[in-house]
């Protein structure tokens, strides 16, 4: 039985906790949160601490807090020889302080409170400062997922940047489309099958080969008509710059 | 048995033909293509014509050619009282010439030759200049899909513009991410589960509620680090403008 304590109570911590509780060979030791009521009801009250001085020994401490708070939280783990990992896509492994047993467990997925995540398909990007601890991380990760990768801090930065493009930015473009629909009394729902197919297609085709639309066809008339329809200067600018980027490839 | 002739041999025509051939109560009458070898082998040679003067009567003629060619192709249908529809997202119904029986059958989906499409989930946006013809279009559409919508030419323009954002533009952002991965020797495949989850999430959450990432968190440090990593001025500009757009919402 591997004992795990989670330091943090945000979205990543929330989904991690839910998944740890489902595993037979993992034990949730404690959860640290500044606000007790932020932790899911599935965790018993005596497992939740609001003071890091109350931290008990565990096989691994997983810090799931904002990037800027990782160093500070890791410093507050005053237990001897603790194995401490963070879950950030952007911070290097050395952001962990006050221990030689450092690691990273970065789940390459987007987490929201209201959407359950199938961990089985989530890529776990692992890094550890020594081989034994890497093995422990690996043992934990394969409980959750079939997709485990050994990823360096440098590689992880690249993956995180790419993830911003394929997730955060694409989601925002959908948000702009929803606004366009609302402004024109068209139901956004009609676009949902297209959104799914756009993603499904990229499981079998490279995005370069999957590109369709007026820009790649050089259909100047349609592009002009679209720009005319867009009254809002922000949407117009985004339309123009991405269209140019497609044309110039 | 409804007889259908397809005028055109591009991607939309290709997928339409494949799906008509699978239907028991639809009959593919003829396919018009300037180049005989562009039509799938599943269509027999004597069904393919390269001259519109050889067009036989059919219950409906579906024009699936580039937007600019619709008017010209429709004029070349010299049969009396023909019901002619186009498949364009952007052109109004009146782009069809030389007949009073006009219509539109716009499939809101992205089509590539190498990717089979499950028509059952594709929204069919229908429009016709008279009620009887709309009924015929509807009868055809429900053979293919469970999602049939009556959509005016004005609404269709809005849907098409929105589709450019949720499909063409998001696909291009994935293409940029693939370049970033390649330049840094990280496998793009690792991002594929995230791409699928990004789309899946939007089936249950509005894109506004689904937004995550450094921009929505106001995480200036990460944004600065990302901009530093992007050497290419085009990617940098796109990163900056979409990030600002997220922040300003």
UniProtKB/TrEMBL annotation, chains A, B:
Residues 122-245 form the DUF2520 domain. It holds the Pfam family F420_oxidored. SUPFAM superfamilies: 6-phosphogluconate dehydrogenase C-terminal domain-like (SSF48179), NAD(P)-binding Rossmann-fold domains (SSF51735). InterPro entries: 6-PGluconate_DH-like_C_sf (IPR008927), DUF2520 (IPR018931), NAD(P)-bd_dom_sf (IPR036291), P5C_Rdtase_cat_N (IPR028939), TM1727-like_C_sf (IPR037108). Residues 3-82 form the Pyrroline-5-carboxylate reductase catalytic N-terminal domain. PANTHER family: CONSERVED HYPOTHETICAL ALANINE AND LEUCINE RICH PROTEIN. This is DUF2520 domain-containing protein. The lineage of its organism: Bacteria, Pseudomonadati, Bacteroidota, Flavobacteriia, Flavobacteriales.
